[in-house]
Amino acid sequence: MTSIHAQRRAHLAALLGPGGIAIIPTAPVVARNRDSDFPYRHDSYFYYLTGFAEPGACLVLTNEGHATLLCQPKDPEREIWDGYRLGPQAAVQALGVDEAYSSAETDSRLPHLLENRTTVWFPFATHAGLAARVDGWLGQVRTRARTGVLCPASQSDVCQLLDEMRLVKDAHEQDIIRRAGAISARGHVRAMQRSARMLRAGEDVREYHLDAELLHAFREAGSQFPAYTSIVAAGANACVLHYRAGDAAIRAGELVLIDAACELDGYASDITRTFPANGRFSGPQRALYELVLASQKAAIAATHAGARFDAPHDAAIAVLAQGMLDVGLLDGNKVGSAQDVIGQRAYFPFYMHRTSHWMGMDVHDCGNYVEPAQADQVSEHVDALTGQTVLRRPSRILHPGMVLTIEPGIYVRPTEGVPERFHHIGIRIEDDAIVTADGCELVTRDVPVEPDAIEALMNA
Ligand code: GLY
Ligand code: MN
Ligand code: MN
C-alpha cells in the first residue's frame, strides 16, 4: 500500500514539469538561550511530503517521482544525548523514499542531483540562506558545463504548488483536525470550570491558572504542543488582540477571553471562547456577546462549497454593523444606517480584524485567498477610512475539504461617546470549520458557545 506521503510526493512530482526537481528542507533547530533550544517543530511542507519529524533532513524529488532523502546519520554518541535517529539506511524502507544519505553529504550530492535538470523548485523566502545554498550548488553544476552537463535554467517557488495541495484537506488530515479540535475544546471547558470553581471558593485566580488547565488538557490527550501561544486575557486585557497569558488577576464580574488550542500530529486547531469569570454574564456583557454570536452564526451560514472566502466576513460585518447601532455602541445620528456603517467602515474601531483564515498544519495555514482563475480581475476601491486606493481581486471559491476559522469579535476600548457600560469589554468567538458540499462542519463545538450553556457549565 502506498503511504499518504508517497501519494503526495507523486502528486507533486507530476506538477514539476519535464526535467523539474524540487528541494524541500525541514526546519532548523532554533536556540532559545545558551544551551537550550526551542521545542523542535518540523517544517510543514517537508512533513506533508514525508511524515518525518526529525531535524536536519531534506527531501529532493524529481518529476519522475524519484525521492532522495538527506537525513541525520546514525550516531551512537549523539543519540545518547539527543535521542534516537532513524538514519539513512532505515529511512528508505520506513519513509518509502528511493535513496537516503547522511545530511553531511548534502553539499556534495546536491550538485549531482541538479545536473541535467531544467527547473529547480524550492520554497522561496521561508528558509534563511536556502536560496544562497541553491546558488552555490548551481554554481558547481555550471563548472561542469564543458563536460556537456546542463544546468537548470530556471528557479520556481515550490510553495506555489504545495500551497494549492495543502489547501484542500484529505480525509486523513480532516480526521486529525477533528481530534485536535475536540482536545482543544476540552481544554476550554476545563478553563471555564476552573475559573468559576476558584472564584466560588474565594481564591485568587490568575490568567496562568487557566493557561495551566489548557496545557494540561492538551498534553494529557497526546498533543505535542499548543498550536500557537495561548491568549488568556482577563477583563480589559481582552482588548489587546495579541495579549499572552500573563499573571493578571481574574475577577468576578469580568469577562475572560481565551484564544488557545493544541497542535496534534502536525495539525493545528484554533478556538476562542469568551466567558464571565464567575459564570454569570452582566447585561451589557450579554448584549455584546449575543451580538458577536449572532454575527458568527451568520458567518457560519455563509460558509459552504461554492461561496467565496469573503462571504463569512461580509455576513458577520452585516450583523455587527446593525447590532452596533441597536445596542448603542454606534450612534445612528452620527454614522447613519447599517449600510453606511459598512460603507464607511465605522465598525472598524470595535472590529479591526478579519473573520477567517485558512487553518491546517499551520494555524494560519498556507493557501491563496484569491481565486487563481480570476486573479486578473482587478478592481479599484477607495478605502473610506484611509482614503487610499486599494486593489481587490475576487476571493477564493470554497471547496469541500478546505478548512477555515470563523472568528468575529468586538473590542471596546474606553472612548468618548461610547457608553461606559461597554468599556473594556473584549469578546471573540472562534470555531474551526471544514467546508462541506452544502455547509460546513464545526469541529470545535465540544465547548459551549451559547451564553446559557456557558453559564450552565460554569455553575454545574
Ligand atoms: N489564534 C490565532 C488566530 O486566531 O488567528
Ligand atoms: Mn484564528
Ligand atoms: Mn485563535
Structure write-up:
- The chain is an alpha+beta fold.
- The chain folds into two domains: 2-166, Creatine Amidinohydrolase, Chain A, domain 1, CATH 3.40.350.10; 168-458, Alpha-Beta Complex (Creatine Amidinohydrolase), CATH 3.90.230.10.
- The chain has 14 helices and 21 strands.
- Strands 6-5-4-1-7-8 form a six-stranded mixed sheet, with helices on both faces. The chain has a three-stranded antiparallel sheet with strand order 9-12-13. Strands 10-11-14 form a three-stranded antiparallel sheet.
- A hairpin with a 2-residue loop joins strand 12 and strand 13.
- The longest helix is centred in the middle third of the chain and has 30 residues, at 171-200.
- The two termini are 50 Å apart.
- Glycine (GLY) binds at residues 228, 259, 270, 357, 363, 407, 430.
Brief overview:
With 460 residues, the chain is α+β, with helices and mostly antiparallel strands. It is built from 14 helices and 21 strands.
Largest sheet: 6 strands, mixed
- The fraction of residues in strands falls at 15-25%
What is the helical fraction, as a range of percent?
A: 25-40%
Note the gap between the termini. Answer: 50 Å
What is the average of the pLDDT values?
A: 97
Find the count of extended strands (DSSP E, 2+ residues).
21
List the helices and strands and how they pair.
Blueprint: H1 4-15, E1 21-25, E2 31-33, E3 36-37, H2 44-50, E4 58-62, E5 67-71, H3 76-82, H4 87-95, E6 99-102, H5 106-114, E7 119-122, H6 130-142, E8 154-157, H7 159-167, H8 171-200, H9 207-220, E9 225-226, E10 231-234, E11 255-259, E12 262-264, E13 267-268, E14 272-276, H10 283-301, H11 310-327, H12 332-335, H13 338-343, E15 379-382, E16 389-392, E17 403-406, E18 409-411, E19 426-428, E20 431-435, E21 440-442, H14 451-459
Parallel strand pairs: 1-7, 5-6, 7-8
Antiparallel strand pairs: 1-4, 2-3, 4-5, 9-12, 10-11, 11-14, 12-13, 15-16, 17-20, 18-19, 20-21
Bound molecules: glycine and manganese (II) ion (2 copies).
Glycine binds at residues 228, 259, 270, 357, 363, 407, 430.
